[in-house]
Write a structure and sequence with these properties.
Mean pLDDT: 91
Shape: globular
Strand order of the largest sheet: 1-2-4-3
Order of helices and strands: EEHEEEHHEEHHHHHH
Largest sheet: 4 strands, antiparallel
Number of helices: 9
Oligomer: single chain
Structural class: alpha+beta
Number of strands: 7
Amino acid sequence: MNGVRAVPERRYVARSADGARTVVVSLPVPGADPGRWAAEAQWAGRLAQPGFWPVAQVGGTAAFPWHASPYRPVLPLPSALAAHGGPLPEEAVRALGAALAEALASAHVLGVVHGGIAPASVLLTAYGPLLGCFGAARAAAPDGTPRAGLPGLDAACLAPEQAGGGPVGPAGDVHALGAVLAYAATGHTVPEREEIPATLRSLIASCLSREAAARPEPARVLAELAPGAAWGAQAAGTEPVSLPGRVVAALSEQAAGALAMELPAEVR
């Protein structure tokens, strides 16, 4: 599998001083523009999109912004592949992709473009995947400024038009979704064609088309990954989803570790 991937933000598990709340705190990566990152965090805090990682609180200073979300056991996709010991089974890739495609379809209808999809921004929970790192491409640089090579951005997930400084639009989300599907299925965002399961090759190739107009709509991606699925049945909900056993074990181990996390002596 690929080595350490570009991560659009740093994440920490934290607990309130009285021990009553456990949260995930996110910070921009070194070298990122803190003001643009904070602006995207503010937008994320106002969204209630199904399938998006919730932002409950935004704080800090202009030079050191942060946002926080209620803690839940969660594995970024690269960590899930590491726990599994390699690429995910095709059934799991299809379920993952269908959930993400449904989330994007719902968002795009409302004019919301995620603009930050990458393996590190796909967060697996026991109830399905959630999309974090909202607006990472917009946070990295304004339209008109090339984004290739900027801190926190996964080059393979940037659509060509976005890498060159073009607008962050819905077609860019689809390109990034294709790279995520390729990664989940092979361990690489730019795999050889033969590495991709035969039944997924055509779909992933269409998502990764260099021409934005040639990429499929998220609803079509959903239909190809989960034929006949009822709308609204893919997004993370209240019922556990089927995940590989080692991924479930890693989520359980993380949850146990968070519960056992000791507080500093002065606040115990």
